[in-house]
Amino acid sequence: MVNTTHLGGTASDVIIGRISHGLMTMHQRATGPQPDEVCFAAIKAGVDRLPPGAKMFLNSGDFYSNTWGPENIEMLGRFYAKYPEYADRTFLSVKGARTPTMQHDSSMESLRKSMERIESALLPYKKMDLFQPARIDRSMTIEDIMGNLVTLLKEGHFSHIGLSECTAETLRKANAVYPITAAEIEVSLTAYEAETKKVIETARELGISVLGYAPVGRSLLAGKITKLTDLPENDYRRNLERFREDNLEYNLSISSLIPKIAAQKGVTPAQVAIAWVATLGQHVIPLPGSSVPERTLKNCEAGDIELSADETKELNAMAEAGEVKGSRMLGGKEESFLWG
């Protein structure tokens, strides 16, 4: 049986697959963008395995490319033009509100530019279902940000509102202005911070979905990276603190439980990592990325894996220990992008 769940907020009547599909790696990748046909097949693979009435939650951005351009969302426009029957079988969330220099700007001027980029790529084939500012613009109050988003929603640009990298307090304040459908935060066995738990609990209380991005720790937990040289020379992860040579060996050592459980169950370490995120609540929806159909299917199958009580207890202990070395991003100024 393929497991499903309901979205939250104003989309509580929408049934989606238990595992969602992040599209960033289709165009933001060391080896260059994937060809359209590969991207199309990767999307269709997840949608086609769902039961009737369920939608695949797709997560895109109007800056998903190696040049921070709209290549990913433009690919989606071509996908829906070629396969119009998939428009109603997918729930499309798009992140935006970033300037050309990658600053976070939720002013109405910036948001309208995002609407123009997104709609010029998608319409008339697909209207985005949900819009998210990619990060919380700290130059504005969340109430003012929400006011701008509600104005655009009422104008018909999208149907639901989401947030990304928000604190529990910000989520609560935003939801008081207008019901939030989903909050996207990093959730994994190596990203289970005090604020992560607060957001998950606040979302449960308020009836909001949590989209857990990077559930495999950007492949740190997939069992395929054993040393820094396993990553291509221009791979962005080489700049992340957790993948730096002085941290990587240690971080891999504390994750050794994952491949052990995977071997016992006959699944992959990545699937165990994704399945654990799904144990955190029916409202917590793992958001792994995939740029090929085989990976999409493996990710989706993780939503049907049942972890035993003992396995869950062991994995919980690993997550709670929080022994990972290095920050989630680059460190320094980059950390200001988190927990807005």
Report on this model:
- This is Aldo/keto reductase.
- The chain has 340 residues and is of the alpha/beta class.
- The protein has a single domain, classed as NADP-dependent oxidoreductase domain (TIM Barrel), CATH 3.20.20.
- It is built from eleven helices and ten strands.
- The protein has helices at 36-48, 71-82, 108-122, 142-154, 168-177, 194-206, 245-253, 257-265, 269-278, 293-301, 309-321, and strands spanning 4-6, 15-17, 21-22, 56-61, 90-96, 130-133, 160-164, 182-186, 209-213, 284-287.
- The radius of gyration is 19 Å and the shape is globular.
Name the descriptors.
two-stranded antiparallel ribbon, 11 helices, Aldo-Keto_reductase, single chain, eight-stranded parallel beta sheet, globular, 13% strand, alpha/beta, oxidoreductase activity, TIM Barrel, 340 residues
Strand and helix layout:
Elements: E1 4-6, E2 15-17, E3 21-22, H1 36-48, E4 56-61, H2 71-82, E5 90-96, H3 108-122, E6 130-133, H4 142-154, E7 160-164, H5 168-177, E8 182-186, H6 194-206, E9 209-213, H7 245-253, H8 257-265, H9 269-278, E10 284-287, H10 293-301, H11 309-321
Parallel strand pairs: 3-4, 4-5, 5-6, 6-7, 7-8, 8-9, 9-10
Antiparallel strand pairs: 1-2
Helix pairs in contact: 1-10, 2-3, 4-5, 5-6, 8-9
